[in-house]
């Protein structure tokens, strides 16, 4: 499990009757929700704990991050007034450049933080499906008189004032809004902001008790990270619940009954709300993608759809009623913005598995990549079912799509689909160069090559490293650049023929 960093986020608001909140767009360069609309905030810094023993560290982090990111400083002078004017810009630059500490900024202004200026909404811990995790406290704060937020290019690309309703309208129209931000906006959509803590409390309490986070990337597009028998370092496989009039469950992977029960809680609520499960759609046959398929099919009387190869592979365990192939459509109904004909298009992407399918949503431009790429680690290509040549061709084929969000089976989303796919291709090219360098005139066995190329790998993963090496050697053999005699391989053309 990855480490969890402390963090704070601020819903900065102005106005009373129909209050506005200050939203920011995170730079696409950021690994954690890059390209998404969110609220200002960031991780707790070590110095935050030493600022004032009377103020908890997360309120300090909230005030500091808000000042660094927006220039808004919620600190009071002894007479109760807030600082304002051009001096704030100068001190903000000095703080960002680390020429001044936050404590020094406050001291120079003769101001200090007051806990009551940051109203605690609640805490939320990033679920363990991604390598970057935060335990974040959300606060509501009001814009001080005489101040106005300003975004300087860097970690943020922009910022603006909007009501909760208009921000949610952006999300319904297809803009990327971070899932925690969506949950907060929905809780307060048509209510005064001071009611947010009590409105959001039941959701936060259920998550703290073990419920699955509501992770929506668009209306009707929910990611459900579930514990599965995935290959380390992954511990979860992302299922997806997608659709409007028709609802589909992609890759219910958990084989554990307790984890299946957590998924059933979500599906039961959907069914109680009138959204029937139309079908279960499988991207491929691996256990961490199909472990809960039979249980879901039986409980909800839903048919299973998959590629013909996948259907044949699972024939003893699971009945597949519809075969999906290249170009087939999964009809989702009408999108939240009123667009009819919302659908997923099946893409045949063999390589990781012979029957592997990815799915593309041309309306939202989402790519459900499954095991074509991971944002946690590289994908295992394990012969005889895995084929590196086919996998690389499938990756290149996905590069041609007009995507703006890549949703993998393992890890968090990527708002830089092209770069994510290109990085996967570059990783394979580097591995091939290393393999070619390790081959020579002297024949070498696969275990020897794997031990050299994957030094320090934990013993349980050695078998998969050897399969990776085999996949690379088979590709080189097809291209006439390697040859095998018995169990030993060498570069073709080295030594005597």
Average of pLDDT: 93
CATH superfamily of the largest domain: Ribonuclease Z/Hydroxyacylglutathione hydrolase-like
CATH architecture heading of the largest domain: 4-Layer Sandwich
Q: How much of the residues is beta strand, in percent?
A: 15-25%
- Class computed from helices, strands and strand pairing: alpha+beta
What is the CATH class of the largest domain? Alpha Beta
CATH topology name of the largest domain: Metallo-beta-lactamase, Chain A
- Tertiary shape: globular
Supply Rg: 26 Å
Provide a count of the helices: 14
Range of helix content? 25-40%
Description:
It is a single chain. This protein is an alpha+beta fold and 497 residues long. It folds into three domains: 4-208, Nucleoside Triphosphate Pyrophosphohydrolase (Alpha-Beta Complex); 216-425, Ribonuclease Z/Hydroxyacylglutathione hydrolase-like (Metallo-beta-lactamase, Chain A, 4-Layer Sandwich); 439-491, Arc Repressor Mutant, subunit A, CATH 1.10.10. Helix content is 32%, strand content 23%. It contains 14 helices and 22 strands. The chain has helices at residues 57-70, 87-96, 102-109, 164-172, 179-188, 196-208, 257-272, 287-290, 293-300, 308-313, 388-399, 417-438, 446-453, 462-478, and strands at residues 4-14, 20-26, 37-38, 41-43, 119-125, 133-142, 156-162, 215-218, 221-227, 236-243, 247-250, 277-281, 304-306, 322-323, 329-333, 342-348, 357-361, 366-370, 405-408, 444-445, 482-485, 488-491. Helix 4 crosses helix 5, helix 11 runs antiparallel to helix 12 and helix 13 packs across helix 14 (462-478). The longest helix is centred in the last third of the chain and has 22 residues, at 417-438. The radius of gyration is 26 Å and the shape is globular.
């Amino acid at each position: 499990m990855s480490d969890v960093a402390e963090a704070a986020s601020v819903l900065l608001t102005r106005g009373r009757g129909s209050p506005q909140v200050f939203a920011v767009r995170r730079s696409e360069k950021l690994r954690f929700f890059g390209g998404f609309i969110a609220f200002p905030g960031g991780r707790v810094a070590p110095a935050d704990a030493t600022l004032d023993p009377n103020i908890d560290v997360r309120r300090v982090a909230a005030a500091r991050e808000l000042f660094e990111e927006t220039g808004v400083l919620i600190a009071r002078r002894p007479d109760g007034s807030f600082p304002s004017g051009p001096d704030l810009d100068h001190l903000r630059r000095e703080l960002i450049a680390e020429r001044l500490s936050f404590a020094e900024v406050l001291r120079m202004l003769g101001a200090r933080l007051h806990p009551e200026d940051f109203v605690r909404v609640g805490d939320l811990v990033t679920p363990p499906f991604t390598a970057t995790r935060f335990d974040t406290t959300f606060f509501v704060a009001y814009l001080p008189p005489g101040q106005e937020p300003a975004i300087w290019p860097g970690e943020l690309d922009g910022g603006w004032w909007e009501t909760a309703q208009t921000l949610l309208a952006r999300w319904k129209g297809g803009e990327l809004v971070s899932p925690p931000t969506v949950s907060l906006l929905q809780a307060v959509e048509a209510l005064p902001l001071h009611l947010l803590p009590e409105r959001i409390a039941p959701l936060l309490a259920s998550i703290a008790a073990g419920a699955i986070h509501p992770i929506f990337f668009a209306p009707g597009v929910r990611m459900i990270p579930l514990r599965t028998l995935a290959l380390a370092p992954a511990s979860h496989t992302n299922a997806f619940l997608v659709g409007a009039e028709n609802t589909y469950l992609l890759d219910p992977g958990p084989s554990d009954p307790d984890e299946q029960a957590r998924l059933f809680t979500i599906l039961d609520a959907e069914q109680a709300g009138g959204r029937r499960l139309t079908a279960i759609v499988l991207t491929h046959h691996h256990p961490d993608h199909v472990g809960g398929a039979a249980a879901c099919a039986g409980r909800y009387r839903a048919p299973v759809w998959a590629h013909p190869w996948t259907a044949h592979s699972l024939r003893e365990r699971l009945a597949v009623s519809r075969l999906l192939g290249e170009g087939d459509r999964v009809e989702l109904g009408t999108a939240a913005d009123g667009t009819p004909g919302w659908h997923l298009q099946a893409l045949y992407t063999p390589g990781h598995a012979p029957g592997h399918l990815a799915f593309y949503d041309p309306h939202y431009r989402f790519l459900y990549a499954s095991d074509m790429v991971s944002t946690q680690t590289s994908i295992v290509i394990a012969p005889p079912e895995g084929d590196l040549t086919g996998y690389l061709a499938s990756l290149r084929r996905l590069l041609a799509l007009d995507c703006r969000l890549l949703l993998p089976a393992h890890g968090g989303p990527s708002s830089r689909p092209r770069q994510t796919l290109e990085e996967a291709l570059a990783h394979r090219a580097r591995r091939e160069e290393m393999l070619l360098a390790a081959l020579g005139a002297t024949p070498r066995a696969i275990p020897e090559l794997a031990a050299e190329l994957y030094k320090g790998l934990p013993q349980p993963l050695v078998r998969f490293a050897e399969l990776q090496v085999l996949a690379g050697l088979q590709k080189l053999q097809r291209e006439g650049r390697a040859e095998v005699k018995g169990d030993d391989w060498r570069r073709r053309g080295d030594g005597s023929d």
